[in-house]
Amino acid sequence: MAERWYRNGVIYNFDVRAFQDSDGDGVGDLRGLISRIDYLARLGVTALWLSPIHPSPWRDGGYDVTDHYNIDPALGSLGDFAELMNVADERGLRVLLDLVLNHTSDEHPWFRSAGSDPRSRYRDWYVWSEQEPPDRSEGTVFPGVQEETWTYSDQAGAWYHHRFYDFQPDLNIANPDVRDELGKIVSFWERLGVSGFRIDAAPFVIERTQPGGDPEQRDYGFLTELRERMSWRRGDAVFLAEANVPNDELVRFFGDADGAANRLQMLFAFRLNEALILSLAREDPAAVAEALTTLPTLPRHGQWATFLRNHDEVDLSQLSESERQEVFAAFGPDRRQQLYGRGIRRRLATMLDGGQRRLQMAHSLQYTMPGTPVLRYGDEIGMGEDLRLPEREAIRTPMQWSDTPNGGFSTADEGDLVRPVISDGPYSYEHVNVTDQRRDPDSLLVWFERMLHTRRECSEIGVGDHHVIPVEPAHVLAHRAEAPSGSLVFLHNLADRPARVRLPEQPDEDDRPVEVFSDREYPDPDLRHLEIDGYGYRWIRLRRTHARN
Description:
alpha/beta, TIM Barrel, Oligo-1,6-glucosidase, domain 2, 5-stranded antiparallel β-sheet, 16 helices, 27% helix
């Protein structure tokens, strides 16, 4: 059904500037994206999440916005965006935009006016303090890079709050004019056809910020207002939010009106992501099994967004110190690979040492978790990172389309590229690119296409209930997804040694089990005697109901 399209979708995230350059200036743009739209349709994704595309000084990947109602000129025009929406619609692809509500750039006309005149109508659109805040050095998001969360403006004669960098002053959502303006931004892009928004830094957006105040005081009502405004204009639009908070706080972001999510429909499953990474590091699924059993029960129409890698560092902040050190030792032992004392700035392929069997198993594991999977551009071909670039820029290098100069991303001179293309080592564009993998039936890209199309036939993953099945040996995870349409069992071997698994009796054993996806061709499934290779995976359908529910 249209109102629940997101529950069986696959979301593909990318930075337009790093995807495809159409005019040779070294910067990816909307026309370049349009030229690659058929690649995305063939891949099997259903929604495109565009990282910020608004005018910006680009000091923080576009999350420092100067105009929420326009397209950055380097990327194109509103006319180009309208054409993108047309070609996406023709291919059944939905478009989601990054929605940066917490702050603006310090170059935004609102902030410039606010800082230049205390009588400006925009003065109270930001959070100010006449006195030096006692907590000015607390709550930094980027330890080791960011030193404070309040900065003094000589022009304004006051301190302004910024949860992120000092060039990103926070908006004051306690101001009704700000709330109304942010609602207008949502309505504007909805009218241009977008199907939803990824809300950046949702917990910080709704902080009731004041000098020395409690950052845990949140205005959830603002999320309810935004949702009502969005849904009134387009009933099938969704909010996907970034909210890395403890489990007991997550349900408040969804909201619960008569058992249904009335604020945000989707949240990134950070706890599940940390469990996946920890289990992969240990080659032991216990952490994933525990996460599956302890995930909060969601209100109706609420949905997790699952991921292995995203546009930021691998965030391990909610793991214990010993667990974090385990993951560092396995996937980021070099200090250059670590970031902010809590994360890893590497791509998944390099974290897993490029082993294709293990990489496929890891992706299969993610794509069978409860929720809607999110795929970061380049992960479908196993791209690497460039640690010479600062902070999170290391994992934001241009897409590698071919072994031609600049990886087919741009015809510009190398020095004019928005970021350097990876050009040396085993992950260079000469070794890892779309064109070569398109011609190789055993490539990661071809595997991804097959896996994504298979998953679309397994709606139980996105909408069903998931249960861990206790099995031996301990390095194999077995779990079950069940919905009115049917049920499936999934096996994943996180170790490099083969195993034999005996499943306990399942509710739907009256039907003949059918293997729908696996790492190799196995004998017909016998649930009492299941083989699985090292780093193997098996998706086995137990029941399929064709009657209308």
